[in-house]
Amino acid sequence: MSTKPGELQTDAFIVNDCGILQTVxxxxxxxxxxxxxxxxxxxxxxEIISEQDQLNGGTMTTGFTYVExxxxxxxxxxxxxxxxxxxxxxxxxxxxxxxxxxxGILLVGSMRxxxxxxxxxxxxxxxxxxxxxxxxxxxxxxxxxxxxxxAHEINNALAIINEKAGLVRDIATHTEDFPRRDKILGxxxxxxxxxxxxxxxTRRLLGFGRRMDAQxxxxxxxxxxxxxxxxxxxxxxxxRIQIDIDVAPDTQSIxxxxxxxxxxxxxxxSNAYAAVEDGGxxxxxxSQPNSNEVAVTISDDxxxxxxxxxxxxxxxxxxxxxxxxxxxxxxxTRDLVEKLGGLIEVTSEVGKxxxxxxxxxxxxxx
Length: 366
Fold this sequence. Notes:
It is a single chain. The chain is built from 7 helices and 11 strands. With 366 residues, the protein is an alpha+beta fold. The strands form 3 sheets. It has a 5-stranded mixed beta sheet with strand order 6-8-9-11-10, covered by helices on one side. Strands 1-4-3-2 form a 4-stranded antiparallel beta sheet, with no helix packed on it. The longest helix has 90 residues, at 85-174. It is rod-shaped and about 180 Å long. 15% of the residues are buried.
């Protein structure tokens, strides 16, 4: 019979002095069963014994008294079950649950802390990289200004050389019996040709370094792209890179800012040079898909860009060139194209190459 903690159980029965039941007992069995109670010998008065109940974990109080005129003993037993017995049984489970809960909390806290620490470390690394790239960008700006100043000074020197070469030509031409006139005139022509070539280079350099304030003018994209290619002609020859330009007939000139367009195509063509191997190929196509815009496509047969990187190439400071890149070129290029009212798109396949397409409005918006 199950009982609730703290419940009192009682039993009364008759035994003989040998401990044999004479009546039915709730606790000890039926008639003639032997009980395990110790019967006090020679009981003449009532006797009460209180002891620990080993079976139920509570206390047991037993009273004995002889029935006068008979060899029988009346026994009354009361058992009081321990109120905290079930708690003792469940205490281990509760402790294990608490231990497991604390361990889980510590584990989750440790994982969360590690995640936060890793994010902070990544943030510090990213901040250091951005700081380094900004320093590099500032250095490049300074070098650009220095190059523009040097180009200006070189132009002054070239003007003096050209003037002196013209003076030598005039003297050789108008002086009778001038010694070795033909040879001198050939040398002067060689000097003036070299001066013109250097002047074109310095003029392009000054054009790239001028202020980037938007200025409307009619721009022939084929001529502008050729100017950019001429600026990088030496590298193409040295690396044996084949460059083909295809201009669709009747392609209109556009109204835009020449300096910013030069910067756009210089960045894209420089990226194409960096992507191809020596002996590679770059194709440039200029077409007019409709009456409102002109498209310039620059394709290379380089290594291509992985799909995971392709969606991030226009983000600031993202570079696929490792330490060789600043991650600013394409970001600046996209901003310039959008500022000019255009749109830039890219497609690439690893192992086959990359294609950038710049769509520009014929008439500049705004």
